[in-house]
Design goal:
Length: 381
């Protein structure tokens, strides 16, 4: 083990590993603290929608998976409950894809390989002393709590149910989303390449109904999804287990600071800390931007540290506060938009349902506004 480290990253998920590889390119010595990488969990059904900016970042650290595990989205169809619809098409924007639906186990395995071959990144079982500690432990971060950081949480009255489905008809590389009158939101995300019949499912349902659908038999569950998806892909069969988690919007009040005094700790040499990824913020998954925002944190922090003056250390709080300001400013419009959409589409009043469908039809015809929103979502600007 190296005797000293410049940075200790707590959390060896996608954001933590990506940040470690970015910092190592600047010849920084990085300790990556988390469970050792092993074989992908057979019951992991997670998938992420990653935009062009995230793809470029992951490719730069050799972390992008192969085409079979990163399916390009050629079109995105969003259906409301009274005929409202919005459609985005990659060809109209001169793009190969609007986004890529990435299999999480494949992505984590590729990043683990990249870390294994980077000599300046050392995987450790427990946190070690370093000038800067970056917390990438996820939404339930213990370290964030230990550091006394207040995490402002707005819970939604919904749970997400995730699984995989094998469909009768091919997905044609179209991502589909349906907003239902009861406030539920269903998304089918294309997987397994251009000719695939598999979709990743994210179904946001009222929290009081989550247990019912997690325990329902396969036929009842898939028939309900077939109805909710308006038979878009024909007969459906489960291709993986079901997982669920509560939905929330959350934001840490502070993203950086000086290490708390802990005389009894063996890590007294640590000096500053920063948050990144879900440890710093959570948004509703309806637009699939969660990991894009987390990777944006990694990119911004690495850039700030790369551009520092030679006399500034990686623990310089002025640098870390500039990172915090930049990322909070980038997160604000996305957080407001996701919260507003969630609130709008979970309300059941008839007048609101009519208004939101009218709004979707107007947005579909809005031209420059729709194009701007598409560029933002694609990470093109």
């Amino acid at each position: 083990m190296a005797h000293t480290f410049d940075v200790c990253i707590r959390g060896a998920g996608v954001v933590g590993r990506t940040l470690a590889l970015l910092l190592a390119r600047d010849r920084l010595r990085v300790a990556l603290a988390g469970p050792p990488a092993g074989a992908p969990a057979p019951d992991d059904v997670r998938a992420y929608a990653l935009n062009a900016a995230s793809r470029a970042l992951l490719e730069s650290v050799r972390g992008w998976p192969d085409a079979q595990h990163a399916t390009g989205v050629l079109q995105m169809q969003v259906h409301a409950d009274q005929g409202g619809m919005v459609c985005f098409d990659a060809a109209q924007h001169g793009r190969d894809a609007l986004a890529w639906i990435v299999d999480v186990p494949a992505l984590e395995a590729r990043l683990a390989d990249a870390v294994r071959f980077q000599p300046l990144v050392e995987s450790v079982a427990e946190p070690v002393a370093a000038a800067l500690t970056v917390v990438c432990e996820g939404r339930a971060s213990r370290t964030r709590d230990e550091f006394g950081v207040h995490f402002d949480i707005t819970p939604y009255s919904q749970h997400a149910i995730a699984t995989r489905l094998e469909c009768e008809r091919p997905h044609d590389q179209v991502a589909r989303q349906w907003f239902a009158p009861d406030g539920s939101i269903l998304a089918f995300l294309p997987m397994d390449g251009a000719q695939g019949h598999t979709v990743a499912v994210v179904w946001s349902v009222a929290q009081e109904h989550a247990a019912q659908w997690l325990q329902a038999d396969e036929n009842t569950f898939t028939q309900r999804l077939r109805e909710a998806s308006r038979d878009a892909l024909g007969a459906l069969h489960l291709a993986g287990p079901r997982a669920s988690w509560p939905l929330q919007q959350a934001l840490a009040r502070h993203w950086c600071g000086s290490m708390p005094a802990t005389p009894q700790s063996s890590l007294d040499a640590r000096r500053s800390w920063a948050l990144a990824g879900d440890a710093a913020h959570n948004v509703h998954p309806l637009a699939g931007q969660g990991l894009n925002l987390g990777l944006g944190d990694a990119r911004a922090l690495a850039r700030v540290l790369h551009g520092r003056a030679a006399w500034r250390g990686v623990d310089d709080l002025r640098l870390l506060r500039s990172y915090e300001r930049e990322r909070k400013a980038a997160l604000l419009p996305m957080g407001l938009a996701m919260d507003g959409l969630q609130q709008l589409f979970t309300r059941r009043e008839g007048a609101l349902q009519t208004l939101r469908n009218w709004g979707m039809k107007g947005f579909e015809r809005s031209g420059p506004i729709k194009a701007w929103v598409a560029r933002q979502a694609m990470g093109a600007d």
